[in-house]
Amino acid sequence: MNTLNNIRNNKTFGRFYGILLLILLAVFVFGLFKILTPGNFGTPEKLFYYLQSSIIYSVGACGLYFIVVMGLFDFSIGANVVLSSIVGVVLSRQFGYAGLLIGALLCGTIIGFCNGFLYTKLKIPSMIVTVGLMLIFESVAYFVSGGEKQSLDASLQFFGKAPGNIILAVIAFLLTIFILRYTKIGTYCYAIGSNEYVAKNMGININKYKIIGFVLLHFFVGIMAVLSVSFGTSMTATTGMASMSRNFTPLMGTFFGLAFRKYGTPVTAMVIGEFIISIIFNGFIALGAPTTIQNVVTGAALLLIVALTTKPAKGTVVK
Predict the structure, then answer these.
(1) How many domains are contained in the chain?
(2) Alpha carbon of 103 to those of 142, 176, 188: distances in Å?
(3) Which of 11, 187, 203, 261 is deepest in the core (most CB within 10 A)?
């Protein structure tokens, strides 16, 4: 038992231990559904499809990690995906890939700044602020699209399949690792999440880094928007909080990152975790299970995983 604890606590072997746990979990989930429905689940082609769909949410999870680790949350992620996708598609008709990428990333970044700025100035919980902003962004998306589905030209769908989507996602993952490990932003985000009062006494500008966290979140959501509209080839504006459903799959990946943060592998955990979630979703589809049952079992499995692998950090509260 002591040997196992020493391995967990060792920085080098701890990383491998955390990754091994995730891989074993992925193999277990895959094997379970393969046994239950061997004929229409888990072929190499389908597994590659599951991976390509999961990396879209992994990018969003990486962005969400920057604020969730500080005890914050954002309900406008789905609305931003829709709006940034539509802006990217509209601009791509005139400027090609430059319009798609710059339009989506710039739109996402501006939204992130607005969210962070309003949160720090209004001094009300982030969930309340971003619910209101979600409704606004949904309306803006509907106005920009004219209420019509916006389709991405077939010649501009490089990021909708391998290797384009994998290249863009890997760039996002490496950028996340770099920011978390080698910049003040990552250090201060962790410090604020651990104990905001102590961080403030250390001289950290709390509001500044919360705004930066929101900006980074929605910059990555802009990347997620490029991957989403390229993968799905089109985007339709929605209203009445219909975009909220897009918030939760990235959040589930972020939970994996938080749970395995103690092993020093949050980004790896988010990528593998989203792949596990994708396997579960597609496994239930292969079984022909109703959507309600899929949501119940998936949510229960996630809660169990997080409960078994993480402990709440002192001083961390949802704001």
Answers:
(1) 1
(2) 16, 21, 29
(3) 261
